């Protein structure tokens, strides 16, 4: 697949770049995508949830009523789970939700995500993105020129660029990342990907490794 290269003013530079079929043209593997997104979401969880169990509550251990003949459920002390304000049975405890996922599966998931975006025509290629100073006005002008101002965007750069990051920081629906920060979730979550030529070369080099 060939893409035209634009500048930040939305003008066609006349250059054409062919996307690698090994990255942007594979048959997407939905199960690999599911596993990678599941791992990403699991890693976002703090796992600090906690409910007090019976042994952790303070209160008298006196048995409230006789064992039989009361007509209700058996209960012991005031901390019994059957009473209002009592302990919780099998409540949540702190835990780690992360799990291992093979590197090749993660690579396949990212390639599948890129292939979906390429097939949908949701990739815009720029020669470079750079601003003389952090200016949201210039960033919005670039989006308007590229006709993607109303889209949920993922801007992919080859290296950190403070001016671009700060210019986009306050814009809802815009996220700026470098190649090392890419993951399947953020690729699929965006409706349009904006890549620089350097970022595209870096992605192809990264997936060859």
Descriptive account of the structure:
The chain is of the alpha/beta class. The chain has 2 domains: 2-45 and 101-208, Ribosomal protein L4/L1 (Ribosomal Protein L4, Chain: A); 49-96, no CATH class. It is 34% helix and 15% strand. It contains 7 helices and 6 strands, in the order E-E-H-H-H-E-H-E-H-E-H-E-H. The protein has helices at residues 21-24, 30-44, 103-119, 136-145, 162-168, 184-189, 197-208, and strands spanning 2-6, 12-18, 123-126, 153-157, 174-178, 192-196. Strands 2-1-3-6-4-5 form a 6-stranded mixed sheet. Helix 2 crosses helix 3 (103-119) and helix 4 (136-145) crosses helix 5. It is elongated. The relative contact order is 0.18.
Number of helices: 7
Q: Low-confidence segments, ≥5 residues, pLDDT <50?
A: none
User: How far apart lie the N and C ends?
Assistant: 22 Å
With strands numbered from the N-terminus, the spatial order across the biggest sheet is 2-1-3-6-4-5
Q: What is the CATH domain class of the largest domain?
A: Alpha Beta
Give the number of domains.
2
- CATH superfamily placement of the largest domain: Ribosomal protein L4/L1
> In sequence order, what are the helices and strands, one letter per element?
EEHHHEHEHEHEH
- Using the coordinates shown, work out and report the CATH topology of the largest domain: Ribosomal Protein L4, Chain: A
> What overall geometry do the principal axes of the alpha carbons give?
elongated
Q: What share of the residues lie within helices?
A: 25-40%
């Amino acid at each position: 697949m060939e893409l035209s290269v634009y500048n930040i003013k939305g003008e066609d530079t006349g250059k054409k770049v062919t996307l690698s079929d090994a990255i942007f043209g594979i048959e997407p593997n939905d199960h690999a995508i599911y596993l990678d997104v599941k791992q990403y979401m699991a890693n976002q969880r703090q796992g600090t949830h906690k409910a007090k169990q019976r042994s952790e509550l303070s209160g008298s251990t006196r048995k409230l009523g006789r064992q039989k003949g009361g007509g209700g459920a058996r209960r012991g002390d005031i901390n019994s789970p059957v009473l209002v304000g009592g302990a919780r049975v099998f409540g949540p405890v702190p835990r780690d939700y992360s799990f291992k996922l093979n590197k090749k599966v993660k690579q396949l998931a990212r390639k599948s995500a890129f292939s979906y975006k390429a097939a949908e025509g949701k990739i815009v290629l720029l020669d470079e993105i750079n601003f003389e100073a952090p200016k949201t006005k210039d960033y919005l002008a670039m989006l308007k020129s590229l006709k993607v101002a109303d889209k949920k965007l993922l801007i992919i750069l080859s290296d950190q660029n403070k001016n671009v990051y700060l210019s986009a920081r306050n814009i809802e629906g815009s996220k700026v990342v470098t190649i090392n920060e890419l993951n399947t979730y953020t690729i699929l979550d965006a409706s349009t990907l904006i890549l620089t030529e350097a970022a595209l070369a870096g992605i192809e080099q990264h997936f060859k490794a």
